[in-house]
Write a structure and sequence with these properties.
129 residues, three-stranded antiparallel beta sheet, 3 helices
């Protein structure tokens, strides 16, 4: 009886180890889809600007913005349950506006901002891990 229980225990440990390894692999693949959402600052415009795209980083440098810090990480491609993080621009104000809500998008458009691009994808509410 002990012999069979021993082998069953070893098999159970192997299954748990495999599931843990698989879960970690899935998380690692998920994290590979994340990119930093970087904050830039322009003292001339007194404007913050967040971007997660190469175009945004290039635009920030060309417009005289300086890197300040990484604010978060966003998904580069949409995954189930995420929404776009949209960047809007107002030439009249010389101001950037980033939002992930329909209310924010409506407010931006109402204030004369135009859609520039999707910076990445985020969950609309905090996610427990």
């Amino acid at each position: 009886m002990k012999f069979n229980l021993y082998h069953a225990s070893i098999a159970a440990i192997a299954v748990i180890t495999s599931l843990t390894s698989f879960t970690n692999l899935v998380k690692a693949q998920e994290y590979q889809n994340l990119v930093p959402l970087e904050l830039y600052w322009s003292p001339q415009r007194e404007d913050n600007f967040v971007t997660a795209t190469p175009d945004g980083k290039r635009s920030a440098g060309e417009a005289g913005y300086s890197y300040a810090r990484t604010e978060a990480c966003v998904f580069r491609k949409q995954k189930p349950g995420t929404v776009p993080l949209n960047l809007y621009w107002s030439a009249q104000r010389g101001d950037n506006f980033t939002t992930a809500t329909s209310e924010g998008a409506a407010s931006a458009k109402e204030a004369g901002y135009i859609f520039a691009r999707v910076e990445g994808y985020v969950f609309p509410a905090s996610q427990c891990q």
